[in-house]
Specification:
The chain has 371 residues and is α/β, with parallel strands linked by helices. The protein has two domains: 307 residues, 3-Layer(aba) Sandwich (Rossmann fold), CATH 3.40.50; 46 residues, no CATH class. The strands form two sheets. Strands 4-3-5-6-11-10 form a six-stranded mixed sheet, sandwiched between helices. Strands 2-1-7-8-9 form a five-stranded parallel sheet, with helices on both faces. Helix 1 packs parallel to helix 11, helix 2 runs parallel beside helix 15 and helix 6 packs parallel to helix 7. It is globular and about 65 Å long. It starts with 5 loop residues before the first helix and ends with a helix.
């Protein structure tokens, strides 16, 4: 679908809404994985343009949100070490660990820098040779090449004082964890266009075949999302499954071979812990041994110690809120409004559950829409 201006977008959105209403003859539950798609759905109130039987479910589409507490705790402890400069993106600053967050660590005197690019961290390593500069790198497949390119630049410049603390996640294993759940409520998926622009669509084909579900690659504008939903519903109504690319203007079927080669060279699969969901086998990526000298978890042994937390802080442990439905929401079993803490004890300023900790989390998206 070609790019269209705002006026035409409204016209096409209305046409697609009517097409969906004509096509859907029974209830269907469709999950989008990407947090950017979730926020567009909430912001533009796309659910109001759908017939009552079509229900949208919101998956674990934000890597910041699913970064486990133990890794945030490790980053906080790391930032408190003498001679260490910890840098990260702004949305990681508020993510709660078991006791604290990076904003509070900075207020206590830790050298924590909020950056806009990992290349800025490389520059810090070059201008502060007396410091160990660690970039807390978070992402799904979309942003991994950016982090790896920065590491390549640090290596090219001979910056031995630079390393990455990684929290890298893969989307297909999370989808399989949801689909393999006996209580799975998902009839079809919208896959994230920006992820597929890197990986291509082939990784989703085994899932679609194994679980007999349609997976439609969609974009992020309202028309893109409605078009993706329409194509997914058409497949469901016809009893068809498989992968369909509804975002061809940005997603080549094979993805980006150059980025894929970079990821294959520098990263290897490993076990993953997802905040709010739990353990998912082979769902994360880490630096290969050849790049171990730049892996903060290898460079700072305490980061891998069992039970390592930010225990050196004066904060008291955060108690888990009874009734928090974060895991149920990210698995598609519940909606944010079902949670007793939503918009009350849990808000973007004081997040309790994983989907509220980042601007791209589903609970944060619906909080801002309803506020």
């Amino acid at each position: 679908m070609k790019y269209i201006d705002e006026y035409r977008s409204r016209e096409y959105a209305g046409m697609l809404s009517r097409a969906i209403r004509r096509t859907a003859t029974q209830p269907w539950r469709i999950m989008e994985i990407c947090g950017g798609q979730t926020h567009a759905i909430a912001r533009y109130r796309l659910e109001e343009m759908l017939p009552p039987g079509i229900r949208l479910l919101h998956g674990p589409g934000c890597p910041v949100c699913v970064t486990p507490e133990r890794l945030v705790d490790g980053a906080i402890r790391l930032a408190a070490q003498p001679g260490v400069l910890l840098a990260t993106f702004g949305d990681m600053m508020r993510v709660p660990g078991s006791r604290s967050d990076l904003f509070r660590a900075k207020a206590r005197g830790a050298d924590v820098r909020m950056l806009y690019s990992p290349l800025d961290a490389v520059h810090l390593a070059a201008t502060h040779p007396e410091k160990e500069v660690v970039f807390f790198a978070i992402g799904f497949e979309t942003t991994l090449p950016v982090h790896l390119t920065a590491l390549k630049e640090a290596i090219r410049r001979g910056l031995a004082n630079f390393s990455l603390l990684t929290s890298f996640f893969l989307v297909p294993p999370a989808m399989e964890a949801i689909l393999s759940d006996p209580d799975c409520r998902v009839d079809g998926f919208l896959a994230a266009g920006h992820v597929c622009s890197v990986t291509g669509t082939a990784a989703y084909e085994p899932l679609a075949e194994r679980y007999r579900k349609p997976v439609v690659v969609a974009g992020f504008e309202p028309v893109d999302l409605l078009y993706g939903l329409h194509r997914c519903i058409c497949r469901l109504e016809a009893g068809e499954y498989g992968v369909e690319n509804a975002y061809t203007r940005a997603v080549p079927e094979g993805g980006n071979p150059r980025f894929q080669a970079l990821m294959d060279e520098m990263l290897e699969p490993c076990e993953g812990d997802w905040r709010g969901i739990g353990h998912i086998a082979a769902s994360s990526l880490r630096l290969r041994p050849a790049y171990g000298a730049y892996d903060a978890c290898r460079r700072f042994a305490f980061l891998t110690e069992e039970g390592a937390t930010d225990a050196d802080t004066e904060e008291t442990p955060r108690s888990a809120a009874a009734g928090c439905l974060a895991g149920e929401i990210m698995r598609g079993r519940k909606q944010p409004s079902d949670c007793p803490h939503f918009g009350k004890g849990c808000s973007p300023d004081h997040p309790i559950g994983a989907p509220m900790v980042s601007a791209e989390g589903v609970c944060a998206g619906y909080f801002h829409t309803e506020s």
